């Protein structure tokens, strides 16, 4: 039964194609299939077992007793067939009866056959059946024969799924080899707990057609897809638009290595030669690699395997033209999103009602995607290794970001204790909610202004819920990020007016658009040849706005009109030198004059401010302070520029502490200077939303914080239990002779002095 590799597989597939295209009933098709394979492989027995009601049932056979069809049944893990399905592995045995898992079934009459080879029929990464051949002679099957069987099994998976022959094809896609509960750990990015089913941001494509009609055409499809994929990778490498930061250098290198790997492309071509469609050929090669890798226990290789999986999936998506993310497909139930990394705009595309949590393989605390998740109140765990291997689409997940843990496929008991803990968390939240009407005043009578950061329309409700003093930072770019096209002035105006209406007497500070960096807008792409190597330090925020001044003019008009008759607080992001502030302010002033000249109602007052997040501004602050009404210190960007450490880089996320003397001394100097010039000053970075960090800021004299809404309760509780004067004296002393970080000292001080750190 010698089979010449591709040629025979192709011959089998051509014949299978005719059977599948026929109008026969599914059972007749299966009977046809076993005959074709039996003949082609010159095998005495060929059988198909399919999973029905959780057991593997003999559905068709050539060679075994006909009466055994639909009678012989094996549980998962039972006998050779059950073992193949349970382990999703191939068995190739010269003497079947000597295998420890062999289970003799008299009704089949299989005692005459010695050799046995079986391959799993795989759908959505789990076995849904087994294709087996048997022979009277005790012999091992050749590799090409096994290859041919595996290829046929792939085609069969299409046939049986289309015919609805197996248990709810793909209903639960849990892989049998990983049905057990697993617990993995990560890094807390956004606090909270969530339960939901796993949804991959980039869904796996389900291959509809496996047998090629025209092999040449399939080959061209794969060539074109390879070109497109390589282009994409080159673009990612040059623009660093690969998600938000992360260990992307390393990943990109690996991607490149695979994308240009001749061996990979050749194997896919060979699979196409055997008669598979482009999609099926890519998947077939991937299956083979997966099986081989499973035998190698090397974590490094497994990581690489993961990259290859990613790329292979990407290639299938390109070939099949299915490039959408899970957001476009829509979430159908409470879900936890899984991704290597995400951009803020990608996250905003998801339905907030159903998105309960996010798990990333990369991720860092101040990446904008994290800020957006925090604003959305979606718990997020980062830096979870190996998630694609451990989690299958549809698995139930319990995410506990506060414990930095993720439970995959929990047992009933685990769900119960999770629910119990969730209740406690909700009670804690309720306790903080009760503080809503209490003022953030320290025990020695100092009032701290506690504002919230916002950016989404729904965020305005946070003012009511938290009792905050106002919106200290309204990130206007969020509207741009959620929009498929540039929001027109009228639409911007409506949002700003609604926000001001909802805020009532409470002040709102609008920050002009801060796009660029990790907040890319597809409709505002600059030229490819201007691709940025380092977008965080690139053409972003005010730099972009001053150059594309039509954008800033439109926004100025929208803000001025929205604030008619009220106070408008405008803040410019990423001001590096005073003249940038002056130019931006002049744009607003010209718009004001233009509107005034045409009789439009103007704001009663305009207050201009700048964000201090580029250290250079600190050097010219004395020049700028007399020209501005307020200053807001953006510690997210400031930290990355002060330390020259990418805020989205996971490896650096833990390296520099917000409680390091450099940050605290720097912020203290700025704040002292602003106060001396009688300019209002506050902090609006994520740092202020963490109780210990916020305490440190109060310790250096900051008394105005704008923070994420969920943090208002805990920060208020901290403030209300704090003696500011005593803390300031302690912090001052610490900063004179500072340790590497003030974290331990401040924590101990808080404990000794009864400060409530949630
Ligand atoms: C900051 O940089 O600290 C800040 C508040 O702005 P963003 O996080 O939006 O860059
Ligand atoms: Mg910033």
From TrEMBL:
Q: Where would I find the GAF domain in this sequence?
A: 25-170
Q: Which PROSITE patterns match?
A: PEP_ENZYMES_2 (PS00742)
What compartments host this protein?
Cytoplasm
Question: Which co-factors does it depend on?
Answer: Mg(2+)
Principal subcellular localization: cytoplasm
Q: Which organism is it from?
A: Stakelama saccharophila
User: Which transformation does this protein catalyse, written as a reaction?
Assistant: L-histidyl-[protein] + phosphoenolpyruvate = N(pros)-phospho-L-histidyl-[protein] + pyruvate
Entry EC number(s): 2.7.3.9
Q: What keywords were assigned to this record?
A: Cytoplasm, Kinase, Magnesium, Metal-binding, Phosphotransferase system, Sugar transport, Transferase, Transport
What is the official name of this protein in its record? phosphoenolpyruvate--protein phosphotransferase
Q: Name one Pfam family in it.
A: PEP-utilizers_C
Q: What class of enzyme is it?
A: transferase
